[in-house]
Amino acid sequence: MANFLQNLTNALSLGSLYALIAIGYTMVYGILRLINFAHGDIFMMSVYFAFYGIIMFLIPWPITFILAIVLTAALGITIEKAAYSPLRDAPKISIMISAIGVSFFLENLAVVLFGGITKAFPSIDLFTQVMKIGPVSLQRVNLIIPILTILFLVILLFIINHTKSGMAMRALSKDHEAARLMGVNVNNIISITFAIGSTLAAIGGIMWGLKYTTVQPYMGMMPGLKCFIAAVVGGIGNIKGAVIGALILGVGEIMIIALPNMLGLSVDITGYRDAFAFIVLIIILLFRPTGIMGEKIANKV
Prior knowledge:
Blueprint: H1 2-32, H2 39-55, H3 61-84, H4 92-114, E1 119-120, H5 125-128, E2 130-133, E3 136-139, H6 140-162, H7 164-174, H8 176-181, H9 186-212, E4 214-215, H10 221-234, H11 239-262, H12 275-287
Antiparallel strand pairs: 1-4, 2-3
Helix pairs in contact: 1-6, 1-9, 1-10, 1-11, 2-3, 2-4, 2-9, 2-10, 3-9, 6-7, 6-9, 7-9, 10-11, 10-12
């Protein structure tokens, strides 16, 4: 039982991290119908911002984390203005190619600026301290991550459902032209969307660095891909669906690996960990292509 609870806490922590990143994917897709393939690399850049703020500039970690989040949000807006906005009226394939290009650009820029060698993310006692809750031992960061995810999910849902900007986002997700005719500043709302998505990616990135203690230029590739899968599984374009999809992937990924050990079997399937996300994606696409909470598409006669 203790082993199960230990693995479950790790699984919920990982699922919550995926959720923070997956929300950015689903928000951008919901408004622009764009898969922002650079989102995982924005997540990576946030970890480097936090790393160098603490290590090189010796800024206290609370201020560093805030600065890293602000810089990452600014990076997200800059990418939207420079790479996506000029292609707003172009075919969808053009903007998708642009997103892939931005992803490669950020990865190679990180190699040039920061080097390709894996670095150790600074250890902060507040997050790395081990807590004992009954039979379960866990780092404090594993408890903080789900709390942050719930907190920011509530704030985001409030913004979307109870503010003018949120109302404009919902209008844009339905019809750009109608929203523009109703007086919505489309460019500003899209920038706000990228800023929010990048902010959540930055929070997820900083927590990832604290949890896994490493940073390298390609660290955003696999988490970014898995979070895209999580958004698809939950129903891309649906924020609650993205969170559900992320929790399914995070919990399933850890519990499948831990299952042989919990059953007393000497079988190591850690190498198949990444395959779980793709298996879930295939199953969802076969039986519910729009995702768990995706809208049903009516058959055209």
